[in-house]
Structures
1.
Amino acid sequence: GRWSTTGGSHSTPRSTNPTVASSHPLDMTLSNGEKLSFVKHLPGSTQPKLFKDASGKKWVIKSTGVQTTQGITLTKDHLQNELSADRAYEALGAKVPKGELVRENLGGYHKKTEFLEGAQTYSDWQVGKSDKQKIVMKERIAQHFMADALLMNYDAVGMTQDNVMIHSGTLVRI
């Protein structure tokens, strides 16, 4: 998934009556009672979606049962593996968004990860940057090459350089 503030547009239906809460068919209630409101679809092969909670905090959600652009159906094990890889990256010193596996009242599992407001994909970040800035960022990406190799992450940067984000000047692996 891509966790930037750009990309993907989806119009969320809103009630014309201000006393009636607006809703969307993709809104969900988690098994702990937390309600998440659908905001928009995000770009990415796993078809992630952006949601917000009652406090307004935004979350990236990947869901079981979704078919990726490579034809793979996401399972609970797949999402758990992603979270385990995130924890391993963290233990090896790489920055990753905080996340957890959650269950929806309807039974589906979801990877719920913090949305990085204002983050840019590595590809988008490069626009307008000097050669020196680009070299420094490539060196920062390479600092965790051994973690990528250890985790067999063949797609660490992404085909379109969108699996690495820059958030407030910090490199974050997604």
2.
Amino acid sequence: VVIDTITAFTLYRACDSGIWKSGDAGGSWTKILENPSASKSRLAVSSGTLYVGLATGTYTNALFGSSVNGEVYKSTTSGASWTDIPSAHGFCGAQCAVSMVVALHPSTTRQLFLGGVDSSSSSNSGVTISTYASFDPPNMVMHSGQNAVAFSTSNSSLIYAGTDGGVYKSVNGG
């Protein structure tokens, strides 16, 4: 469950059947996005902009044969309409059904963080996405299996990443 940063009574939740929205602090819920083929989903919201990451495909084993594909969709209408972000397709690799992160920097809706096997970010709302930490040498700076991203409230350059291998800190905004 994520809370809209503009309207505190507006909540969003992701579950197997879809993405849901509540305008009354969770008293009632309305489905705003179907995701019938997704095995996992993650949400991020900031200033009325909503991103959802979906793990689609079939998961068999993270190391030995998975056809899971990460997809990301964006809504600037509080979930009334959605736009596919093609540059994010496959963002979480074989880890999608196990570990997946979609996060927005709290100071801007344009800085998007995505994680799975590798860690990626976009400074332009997903138009282009760059990998900043890879599980493959020589770029292996943190463990794969991204599970969480947290931002410091006092320093916008301080970001924490929670992975299957521990917690990592960036002091330069990722």
3.
Amino acid sequence: TCIGIGVQWGENDSAYFQVLPQTDPDILWLMDILGDPKRTKVYFNAMFDLRVLYDLAYDEGYTLPDMTNIEDASMAAQIQGQPDHSLDGLTTKLLGYTNPLSIRGLLDAAGRGSTTLDIPLEGISQKCLNDVKATWILWDRVVRGFPSGENQECYDVDIKLIPVLFKMSGKGLG
């Protein structure tokens, strides 16, 4: 379930769009941008993000997310052989800082049996904004870190597979 979407469009330019419990009125505008194949979108774990965005768009009648003009910082880090390619792991290793907010920590602070909807908006939105800023910076670092054309070629093939894998993931066996 999507409770909000963080977006970074410049070094110091970002925004959080709440989806639940109340939907930000600018969500239609955002979903149109995410659905625009002319705009490059950088994700961290694109398969997960695209599934959440697709389900939200499908359920609410929004523009479906574009899956053709995308990049994935997590995938690029994996291809480079980063042993810990989690967002927190890469942020610590490559950027030298740790996001002080985690979903687990925010849930623990909200109390036993809490869900993400029980976390105060300020906490969840700040965690999300920290994540999109880290993704923005990491994308630049991992792209510059491709040591060879072979790694770049592997990434180029893998990123093109995301729409195919996404469609396959929605199919059952039988």
4.
Amino acid sequence: AALPAGHAWDEGGSAMNTIVLATDGSPTAEEATELAVDLASATGARLCVAAAWEGPLTIYPYAPDMEVGGLERVERQRASDAARTAVDRARQAGVEAEAFVREGDPVEIVSQTATDTRAALIVVGSHGWGRLRRLVFGSVSTGLLHEAPCPVLVARHDAHFPDPRTREKEEAVA
């Protein structure tokens, strides 16, 4: 079957031109960063790092102790730091990378970034939350699976299956 016009795969159908990494700086986002950087390096894709921050009135349904402007600055800085860390990691690996830090719903921001960059793939971490916590707090990875304009790869953290590179790194240091 033919791909839609403007699809992110090349004419030969073998290479990605852009991968979007969704990050919030969490441990699972760090795992997603490693995966996205590895994929971008292997395919020659550009990496677009998307980080979102939401205003405090969206986050807190009650009057917070900290002034609203202070909370907003903290959230914006958290998103900027997460994006900068991921871009630095990509550049260290020789991958072309750019950060997109925007205010708004993370699912909408990441999906829009993927659309704007004509991404072939979105990589996102999974918090591994149970059903109740996911119901209460929502899930960016689940939202992206439903809303994204391209395929989504969810990097799942699972302590029972450690990264096989860990042993290699430990042996190299010893």
